[in-house]
Amino acid sequence: MKRTHGRLGAAVVVTLCGVALLGSPAASVASRDLEVEVTVDCSHVAVDDCPDLDGNLAYLVDGSGAVVGEADVNRGTLDFPDVAPGNYTVTFEDEHSVVRTPAYDFVGDEGAFAFTYVPEPSAVVEATVVGTTGEPVAMPSLTFVHTDGSDAFSADVTSSSNTGVVVARTRAYGTFVLRADDRLTNGYLPTYYPDSLDLADATPVTLQPGTHVELPIAVHASGLVEGTLGAVGNWYHSTRVEVYDTAGHHLLTTGTIALDDARYRIAGLRAGTYLLQFAGDDTHPAVWYRAGSTGALTEADATPVDVTEGQTTSGIDIDPSTCGSISGTLRGYTSVSDAELGGYKGEVQAINVNDPVATRVGSLDGDLRYTVKGLAPGRYRVAFLFHGYLTDGGDRRYYWHGDTTSGDAITVASCADARTGVDMTTAVELVTRPVITGRPVVGQTLAVTAGTWTLPATVAYQWTRDGAPIDGATTSRHAVVAADAGHRIAVSVIATRHWYEPATSAAAGVAVAVQPRLVSSPDVTGTYAYGHTLRVTTGTWSPAAKSATYQWFRDGHAITGATAATYRITRADIGRTVFVRVRVTTSAGGWAVATGAPITEVPKVRPKVAISYVDPTITRSQHARLRVKVTDGGVVTPAGTLAVRLTGGSGKTIKVTLHASSHGSTTIKLPRLPGGTTQARVTFKPASSQAAYVSTATSSRRTVHVR
């Protein structure tokens, strides 16, 4: 007996105190080695039936049926190390039958168990295998088959060369069907005892200990097909034949037996009518046999081949053309060696959309070009398949032509159709270069387009200043800052896709103009007073300003519409600080801003108060009348309080309200004055609604004479 991995028998039962299964013993019980001594008692059987168990693999099985140890039979001894106390069975195979030891209780310090195996007499089958004409079959084989059709075993057999006699001894008992085969020439068909090609027609044989059966098996001769495969290369060496019945049912796949450089033979065929499809190397399409032609591309055009038992059907010749082709270039690598990794080179596959048998492969030449030949008319998806040890998990990489997920279908219309320009790429490639838009001046924002690429890709950005990366500038937009002035700003767009080589394209850079330097500040001339006009110069700059714009401000807020070099002060400016900013631009596009000087608050308007007497000389019986005129340049219509202070003989102060309806003019009747001279002086105090724009003002003195 040879070393075998047999079926398990009933378990040797060993009781482990307090523990149900091996592998979880109580902490207080130590495991020990178990030795099983096996003795074979062959006193009741013939010498040929006495087995040699040395080298057989035996199993130690616990009470649950689990295998917990194994050991080889070595000179009749089995050693199982580190076995915990428990219930065990030892089991092994002898000539296709299971040998089981009795149950054994392995407890405490015991560590040895003796077992005597008494083999039963073998059943002996002596079969004479002959052909249908009675000729002995050289080198037959004998297989024992279950009645359900599954193979039980092929017994160790002895045969007398060229006699067709097979002797098999076995201790596997039961009912079997015997099948004889020709192991040498394959010139016979597998035949069931006594002479049936089908299991259903076979005669079963029952084997018991000591049974000796002599029986003849007449095997059927195989039908043969011979022909030539053509002399194109070594197509016949790699050809396989798909055999179908005339209803299109696939029966078997077989290789061909090459008789010489052009002839072939197919054996193992029953009598019948077949359709044969030949699938050759990668330069020829899979074709069906069609008499008198290079082959048919469809089953419907195939010629049936009649096969007779024991006869040779010859003249089944096939010489296929190379048919259609697809060719193109692989981009993304610089040489064929780049397309190798770990010693494996990639290949180009043309995968037939509807018939995988029609798929063909091609290899790259030194210029990374390929041609896949042997394409039957149909639709193909083409891919470069990269083999080798890959860093991203070991998967195959498919680089498809067209759609990157499954490829575009390429139609080969006929065997004369040679499709060209079917290219693949292993890298993302640029189609349209990215473009920078926006003004390259400080304070403006530049933007870049993503460009267009041959494949859908993830795009990243890196802006540079004179070629050096700008920290944090990694989006499609860049705000131009003072540090960019006088430098060249560019951006690199990086397109990436999983498994593909990335691509980088730099947009054409732009020069950021230098900001002009202020030599002398803009100068504001004019009076900062209501109604007056201010004028500002552009100042002096280096390089010189080509143009300028202006903005006047009131208390820091831009004055709407005040964008000229001159500005007339309005009532809204009174009490506010007014200034101007000048923005100049150079011919190169650089710009800068300066504030004109001085920066001044506009004062309130001081009104003019004019007084005069209607009659500068009066008698004591008369009242003096004083005319008052208040003017403020039109900022408001004067309204407020007039305080008349009399000096001299009177010394009184008279207050009168000046209404806006008086338009700044009024006549005040004074009380009777003493004789002599009296002087009057009038102070105007604006109403609260006008106090923000005009201030208090006092007239000069006027004298009246009283007789």
Termini separation comes to 169 Å
- Spans where pLDDT lies below 50 across 5 or more residues: 1-28, 231-236, 339-344, 388-394
Helix proportion: under 10%
CATH class category name of the largest domain: Mainly Beta
Evaluate the radius of gyration.
58 Å
What proportion strand? over 45%
> Which geometry do the CA atoms define?
elongated
How many beta-strand elements?
65
Number of domains: 7
Mean pLDDT: 82
- CATH architectural category of the largest domain: Sandwich
Structure, explained:
The chain has 707 residues and is an all-beta fold. The protein folds into seven domains: 32-117, Immunoglobulins (Immunoglobulin-like, Sandwich), CATH 2.60.40; 123-218, Immunoglobulin-like (Sandwich), CATH 2.60.40; 223-313, Immunoglobulin-like (Sandwich), CATH 2.60.40; 327-425, Immunoglobulin-like (Sandwich); 430-511, Immunoglobulin-like (Sandwich), CATH 2.60.40; 517-601, Sandwich (Immunoglobulin-like); 608-706, Immunoglobulin-like, CATH 2.60.40. The protein contains no helices and 65 strands. Strands 58, 60, 61, 63, 64 and 65 form a six-stranded mixed beta sheet that branches. Strands 2, 3, 5, 6 and 7 form a five-stranded antiparallel beta sheet that branches. Strands 10, 11, 14, 15 and 16 form a five-stranded antiparallel beta sheet that branches. Residues 1-28, 231-236, 339-344 and 388-394 have low confidence and may be disordered.
